Amino acid sequence: MKAPGGIKGSGTRRSVLLGAAFLMATSAIGPGFLTQTTVFTEQLLASFGFVILISILLDIGAQLNIWRIIAVTEKRGQDIANAVLPGLGYLVAFAVSLGGLAFNIGNLGGAGLGVQVITGLDPRWGAALTAILAIGIFLSKEAGMAMDRITRWLGGLMILLTAYVAFVSGPPVGEAALKTVAPDKVDLMAIITLVGGTVGGYITFAGGHRLLDAGISGKGSLREVTKSSVSGILVASLMRVILFLAVLGVVAQGVKLSPANPMATVFETAAGGVGLKLFGLVLWAASVTSVVGAAYTSVTFLTSFSPKVKEKQPMFVIGFILVSTLVLVMAGQPVQLLILAGALNGLILPLTLGTILIAAHQKRIVGSYRHPVWMTAFGTVVALGTAWLGGVTLMEKLPQLFSQ
């Protein structure tokens, strides 16, 4: 997928930069992102706006650090980790790929449910058809550009459809704006959970690795890389804010959301039968773009194990999608694997971000580049916060895993 000799043409370069931002954003906007936002809004009401605001700032802090050091070193995340401590990169690659595989199974499950809502088709068939579409992207001669386009188109579609539901739900915008800066309560766990859900695991590396594959790297590209990294966070955050307003408009009417499918309740309450179909379309779009992002990024972490993986990267991405699909169709979503992967995913961000922060201050890795102190401070806060949450989650989930 790498463009030999780099990107030619300013238009193509801008397209790749925007595509990288949307790849990261749509990787974050999966079934879990949608459910998470809906549930937290029902619990915290308008005060959830404050949680979103703080998480956006922390997300930017984490992503700026990671994308800049990838660009400066012209190395992928696992290779930077190996430069910090030999062998650490292989641990990072294994952890990210395991989490990516487990969550890809969940993403395909979400896609199947979305297809079922739209057409009535069995979810397994919906998942299989979605997998075929995703595989088609990577069979293209210009797989990278195809990936950029579909994430932009479907990302925009999700935002527009959800914005319509937010409009018809009639949210108390004034109250939401007030509580965003003066909340009734602050939920620290919700903040850290949102940060992990937006830039945790493989997600924050998706766009950074895409730019590297496209030949956009080096100190001369830092301004563009920085802009693209912030844009990715803002796109994901825009979707989060719009969905928050849509949910708030419904729960403010006293509607209790269904625990089994809270987001479906929101869309159907706001827009009736049409709203339910829109829910299916948004869920499918969120799922398929996350499938593409998870498969692509997970395989970029495996390239360090063998030169053949890098040479045949699209084929390995296709294999990754096929394995995820077979597990889902034959065994459903394996609860134990998802529990373990979810707990481990909480520890991946502090591990990867912590490694990046160490690398940022080692001349043998970054050369003459001087990393801004404020970025280091920002990154440290995010790394420590998510490490705490990951540890708590792991202690809670491991007993459940071994008791089943």
From TrEMBL:
Topology with respect to the bilayer: Multi-pass membrane protein
Alphabetized Pfam families for the sequence: Nramp (PF01566)
UniProt keyword list: Membrane, Transmembrane, Transmembrane helix
Protein name, UniProt field: NRAMP family divalent metal transporter
Main location: membrane
TM region positions: 44-62, 83-105, 125-143, 150-168, 188-212, 233-255, 275-302, 314-331, 337-360, 372-395
Organism, scientific name: Salinithrix halophila
Compartment(s): Membrane
